[in-house]
Amino acid sequence: MSLSGGRGADIQYIIRGMSLSARAVVLAVLTIALAVSGACKGGFFGRPFEYEEDLYLALDGSATVVVNASIPALVALRGLDLDPAATRLDAREIRAAYESPVTDITRISPPWRRSGRRFVQVRVDVKDIRTLSEAAPFSWSRYALSPQNGHHVFEQKVGASALRPGTLRNVGWSGSELVAFRLHLPSRILWHNSRDLETGQPRSAARGNILSWEQHLADRLDGVPLDIRVEMDSQSILHRTLWLFGGAFIAALAALALLIWFTIRKGAREAAPTTGS
């Protein structure tokens, strides 16, 4: 493991001054830390997602969308005017691409590298998910959210990518890399059409009420359509939880009041003078 820069030199100097066993422990900890850092950005233990959209939806239609993607994927899939070969990433270019009358850019992360490509995260707020397709980077999708038969239905239809024939650069893709669309849902899921990419079998919601739809990068570049549909309760999990806690608290208070009343009444009967005494 090599460490570069002034801070790396300081660390190496400190390590050389340690005993052999202490040095081994420190190096092991640093190795694990680097591995975890890589995993958090989709490497090592993570699957090789080249483009990800995580949609955090509220029942009123407001939402936050978090995009994690490589710069080449943003260029090929969404047509962003960026240079995949540039040595530095100008966050102002990313912001300009995602700004629109319907979106509010809340965060653009510092870039990181994986497989020789730079990745970036963009966090976007939208007041009404049904208008998100008016923002150019999300125009490949059509969004719908409405109450139906006593519950809410969300739909997202993902269409063609922005890829123009003859413009795809060789950036080391094999085509088997993954593209993911995830929904972080606010209420109990009644039905969905999420399927495992490899087996085609129905996929269960992950912890946190999360559903995922995946495609291989080659299919997404070709614009193979993706239809997302979820039916869910029209009452959020938080709302239901608060009502349950509220009901339990009121029931506990009522039981306590009844116990106090019963105890006072029993004490009053015992304290009353006995007839004929």
Question: What does the model show?
Answer:
The structure is a single chain. This protein has 277 residues and is α+β, with helices and mostly antiparallel strands. Helices cover 32% and strands 30% of the residues. It is built from six helices and eleven strands. It has helices at 5-16, 20-40, 71-78, 91-98, 217-222, 237-271; strands at residues 49-57, 63-70, 103-108, 112-114, 117-126, 141-148, 151-158, 178-184, 187-192, 210-216, 226-236. Strands 1, 2, 3, 4, 5, 8 and 10 form a seven-stranded mixed β-sheet that branches. The protein has a four-stranded antiparallel β-sheet with strand order 6-7-11-9. A hairpin with a 2-residue loop joins strand 4 (112-114) and strand 5 (117-126). The longest helix is centred in the C-terminal third of the chain and has 35 residues, at 237-271.
In short:
This protein is an alpha+beta fold and 277 residues long.
